[in-house]
Amino acid sequence: MELILTQDVPNVGISDEVVRVKDGFARNYLLPRKLAVIATSATVKERAAKIQKAKERKAIRLAEASELAERMSRLKVSFERKASEEGRLFGSVTKDDLVSALAELHHITIDRKQMHLPVALKALGEVQVKIRLETGISGILNVEIVPEGGTPAPLDKQDQAQQSSEENSAE
Asked: Within a domain: residue 143?
């Protein structure tokens, strides 16, 4: 069913945009809440100018989102946290921590719901976090968690053995 949205609807479209949705979604959600009207030829002609402006706004939003995704791929956000000798954190790094760090350090404002982080980060190391900026456009944020004091986590026995074997082979 083709509809003209009267308000912005997340994951569907922006105001005054012509969208195609399933009939049940239109009848049970969009139309009763007055979030959309049926796109007949008369309503499309009536709202033609608004629809054109909506397309232009959408193109601008997509361009800004792709630019932000490119910018975020170059960023690295670092956190210092207390950690055990095994590299486990006493606490965690959450979505809220990431959102506030992006806002403070890089002046990037995003909603925590846009971030794909199934569980809070509870170990030292580097992680890539996916952030959904717009429909079809996602950015990757590099997150580094180091122990307090900035010293690297102690190596476990397997890593120490590998490192010593590399040093011996280099000599």
From this structure: yes
Contact (CB, 8 A) for 153 and 159? no
Is this prediction's pTM over 0.85? no
Domain span including residue 77: 70-154
CB 12 within 8 A of CB 19: yes
Show the DSSP H helices in the chain as ranges: 23-25, 41-46, 48-73, 95-106, 157-170
* pLDDT tier, 167 (very low <50, low <70, confident <90, very high otherwise): very low
One domain for residues 62 and 89: no
How many domains does the chain divide into?
2
Domain identity same for 83 and 139: yes
- Per-residue pLDDT tens for 122-147? 888 898 989 888 878 888 989 998 98
Q: Rounded to whole angstroms, how far apart are CA atoms 157 and 142? A: 27
